[in-house]
Amino acid sequence: MDHFTRELIVLNHCRGVGRKMIWRLLHRDPNLIRFRNYSTRDIQQFFHLSQAKATIFVDDLHQLDANKLLSMLHAQQITPISFQHSSYPKLLKHIFDPPYLIYAKGNVSLLNETKMLSVVGTRHPSREALQIINKIVVPLIKNGWTIVSGMAMGIDGMAHQQALAHQTIAVLGSGLNHPYPRQNHFLFKQMCAAQLVISEYPPDARPERWRFPERNRIISGMTLGTLVIEAKEKSGSLITADQALDQGRDVFAVPGSIFKETCGGTHRLIQQGAKLVCDWQDIIQELNWRME
């Protein structure tokens, strides 16, 4: 393990600081050579932290054992990948707020696939949802597209299930030792064994409500486009779609009945310029130019 990644792992386990502060630290010390010499006062001044947070951070920094952390990751078959590593997803590097470190379990080579599409939607799909997935997503899978989603109940899990025999990546809103939801625990094990599961959070991080909107930027940021299948007007799927648009990626939406609550969000996306999708070829035609 290179020095840079070792230090990032330690930083990722420190309390008192968040992702934005770590990025500021990286701008000040790009190779992570000097930062261990910073005093609590330096941390306060350089990064505008309170004394309490700076003290917690410095204490953790000097108490955490990098070798122990690495041994734990190795024992759990978890691979840490820094943003400088060749396996780090290329598209993800170009978003506004990329994770500086991701933890991966499974087939890490999937991160280098170029034909990636994120598929998101409601946790309470209609009876037609599986038919929609079979008509639009399954042909994409069979044509070599890697499906990226969040392993949630409903559309996410259904998309992963259909891609298990091919290629799919799940992005968690928790650490890899605490996959969520529990109902998809068997799917998680299948994904780790034959596909790939990743997270920006330390393996022992538990699922927290605020982490799921955060991870959505990774789902959209890794892929060329995002397909939304059934989503309410206020939902996590629309957060993912909004982030995809902010990242300059294509957004696709499947229309449905105006009487279904789970179609309100997809219809709103179409009104705002998302491409209306009736067939898998609609997606291919839009994305082909991005790969040229």
From TrEMBL:
<protein>
    <submittedName>
        <fullName>DNA processing protein DprA</fullName>
    </submittedName>
</protein>
<feature type="domain" description="Smf/DprA SLOG">
    <location>
        <begin position="81"/>
        <end position="287"/>
    </location>
</feature>
<dbReference type="InterPro" id="IPR003488">
    <property type="entry name" value="DprA"/>
</dbReference>
<dbReference type="GO" id="GO:0009294">
    <property type="term" value="P:DNA-mediated transformation"/>
</dbReference>
<dbReference type="Pfam" id="PF02481">
    <property type="entry name" value="DNA_processg_A"/>
</dbReference>
<dbReference type="InterPro" id="IPR057666">
    <property type="entry name" value="DrpA_SLOG"/>
</dbReference>
<comment type="similarity">
    <text>Belongs to the DprA/Smf family.</text>
</comment>
